[in-house]
Amino acid sequence: MHTLQHEREGVCILPGRPGNMGDVRVLSTCVQILKKEKLLLLSYERGLWDALFPDTEIVLLSDRTTCATSPVSGWFGKIRRMIASLSRMLRKMPVIITTLRRSKCFILLGMDNLDGHYGVFYVLQVVSLVWLARWSGARVEIINCSFNSRPSRLAVVALRCLPSAVRIVAREPIAQARMERYLSRPIVLAADVAFLFRPVVRAQNALQPFIDWIRGERVKGQRVLGLNMADIPDVPTDDLVRMCIRTVERMRSASFLLIPHVKYGLATMPDEEQLLRRILSGLSLESRGRCSLVPFPYDLSDLEQLLSALDCALTGRMHFSIGLLSVGVPVCCVPYQDKFEGLFVDYLHMPELLFNLNAVIAEGDFVQPLQEFLSSRDAYARRIQEELPLLRKLSAKNFWESDGVLTGASAEIPALSASSRGVFPHHRACCPAPLPRGRNPSSCSRTN
């Protein structure tokens, strides 16, 4: 256990178990922006976070990994896991209070976790920690929030109990509109923190062989597309694999670099590398020769350079999209939740980059929309480059205070100009009744 030796600028809560490179990108950005020698990360599952952030201090709140492997299922298993998690947190309470009292600012990454989809108990824990932080005298900020269309009723009630001084930041207009209606409080509008990620320049890139492979394919006259695919709610995995195989087989003038973005290492959780290997193994010998697979894990800074070498990409992951957009590479998405609309419609004004899933399923592959996309690839690249500066300024609002001070952040965050505030007003009536009943449908399932 690390020791607390001096006052901290900020305390961040890690989103959960390592394995989702979207979470790693957001956490890495926070570590870059907040003074890392004064940043302490409160983690529910330490896992590999120590290795990813060796220069930061990590305090373990509770270990959900042991609890998650419990053989008991059903409601009794859920109650047992909740009690076990609560008891661990209570045992850590002296450490938590000491940590918060030595901190000037408590920053919580909202992500997709505040609407109760991944568990109402997590939301209750968060609310209790926020009250503890306020009691300890820390400024509290909940940043980078999404909010689905049917949040848990109990989660909404708990969030309404947050102190009025807590600053909450939504990462897309549709989430801002929902949170303002459900929580009856003002919500700051920003863009995703991940747009502020700064890759580390190294003498050697571990993914250089794949960059060389891309160049080799171009010499052959091929266009090189990145392919990242995740399990999509309501679409059987076998059907998704079959559509991807048919797409690669039919697009003979294109080569594909398969890139996994999520791999938790647990049988019950997503493993995109395994899914992509299924696609690779189902291809003919000729098509397999036009493909390559990036093994997991990899370094995000190395990945950034690799993504910049692609012509474009097809993905089902939000933060994989952000990685591509950040280097000016056009990307088309298979949206499974309306947070994609927040980025591609409300911010980029490019709804045509979101494929109609029902139409794709009916067609049996992605060939037609991909070919239409490739015909306008250069125009999309220019438009993305034009929008990027404003997106980064909006991202900085996650750390921006009303008095013009960046909360514990370095001067490297782009300053907000007056013209960049309120540029994207939310314009859709997107909220149902203020207090929904029941749990979220499976169609709202998502991972960053």
Verbal overview:
This protein is of the alpha/beta class. The chain has 2 domains: 10-190 and 400-434, Rossmann fold; 208-390, Rossmann fold. The protein is 42% helix and 12% strand. It has 18 helices and 12 strands. The strands form 2 sheets. Strands 3-2-1-4-5-6-7 form a 7-stranded parallel β-sheet. Strands 10-9-8-11-12 form a 5-stranded parallel β-sheet, sandwiched between helices. The radius of gyration is 22 Å and the shape is globular. The two termini are 29 Å apart.
Q: Given the helix and strand composition, which structural class is it?
A: alpha/beta
CATH hierarchy, class of the largest domain? Alpha Beta
Terminal residue distance: 29 Å
On the 0 to 100 scale, the average pLDDT is 82
Task: Describe the oligomeric state of these chains in a short phrase.
Answer: single chain
Strand order of the largest sheet: 3-2-1-4-5-6-7
Strand content: 5-15%
Main beta sheet strand tally, sense and closure: 7 strands, parallel
Per DSSP E runs of 2 or more residues, the count of β-strands stands at 12
Radius of gyration: 22 Å
Overall geometric form:
globular
Helix content: 40-55%
